[in-house]
Design a protein that fits this description.
The radius of gyration is 18 Å and the shape is globular. It has 108 residues and is α/β, with parallel strands linked by helices. Strand 1 (20-24), helix 1 (29-44) and strand 2 (51-56) form a beta-alpha-beta unit. Strands 3-2-1-4 form a 4-stranded parallel β-sheet, sandwiched between helices. The chain is built from 3 helices and 4 strands, in the order E-H-E-H-E-H-E. The termini are far apart.
Length: 108
């Protein structure tokens, strides 16, 4: 309901996290540690309903299959491929991504 000045005020409530978190490189050491921590956090807080999406280069590996068995949504992709990244981030609320120094050469 608007106040006298026409401003609608919303109650300050702690929001539930219902988004999707993308972890790029989820089968590597850092990515796997992040996925493990997210799964533990989600299990501890019953109000959290966030989903975890893992972008991996090869979804047929044992590491990727293990993540899938734990409830992680697996998407195939390479972070150096723009189309793969656009598809992977579609609909996510947060992204975990580690970048390394990479040298691009002009013209290729």
């Amino acid at each position: 309901m608007p106040g006298a000045n026409g401003i609608v005020r919303k109650k300050n409530r702690r929001k539930k996290n219902n988004g999707t978190i993308l972890v790029v490189g989820a089968t590597g050491n850092q990515g796997r540690a992040i996925v493990d921590a997210l799964l533990r956090a989600r299990d501890r807080d019953m109000r959290s309903r966030f989903k975890i999406r893992a972008m991996v280069r090869d979804p047929t590996t044992m590491k990727a299959r293990e993540l899938k068995e734990r409830g992680v949504h697996i998407v195939k992709g390479d972070m150096m491929d723009e189309k793969d990244m656009r598809r992977a981030v579609r609909g996510v609320s947060s992204v975990f991504l580690i970048t390394l120094e990479y040298s691009f050469k002009a013209g290729g």
